[in-house]
Design a protein that fits this description.
about 10% strand; about 60% helix; about 120 residues; mainly alpha; elongated; single chain; 5 helices; 2 strands; two-stranded antiparallel sheet
């Protein structure tokens, strides 16, 4: 029986999810939840676009969580060595959130999973 284009896409998606789960397990980030990962994605997406977020900016993202919860998640991401806080070149009072090499390796592994799934 021949698979339809939609069935192929669904199969591709689940191959990708399986590979991503393998990446997460290999990274061994104890306590990294999907909520932490979402915050990491948002922070790193801004950094990648050339406009790193400050701690204050991230704390105002009510659509992600409360300020207390965001603060707790940032602390966890720092403890896992996925982000660092750097003093802003424009204003020394501001702390910008930047990904570490460990975070960039994690994103790279996820991108490789996408490539592998699509083969």
């Amino acid at each position: 029986m021949k698979r339809t284009a939609k069935q192929e896409l669904v199969a591709l998606y689940f191959r990708y999810r399986q590979l991503i789960e393998t990446v997460r397990e290999a990274a061994d980030f104890e306590g990294l939840t999907p909520d932490h990962e979402e915050l990491l994605d948002v922070v790193c997406e801004h950094w990648h676009a050339g406009s790193p977020l400050t701690v204050r900016q991230v704390m105002s993202f009510e659509h992600l969580a409360s300020t207390v919860t965001i603060h707790r998640r940032l602390k966890k991401l720092r403890a896992l060595e996925l982000i660092e806080l750097e003093t802003s070149e424009a204003d020394s009072r501001k702390r910008e959130i930047v990904p570490t090499k460990k975070a960039l390796d994690f994103f790279s592994a996820k991108a490789k999973a996408m490539q592998t799934a699509s083969r």
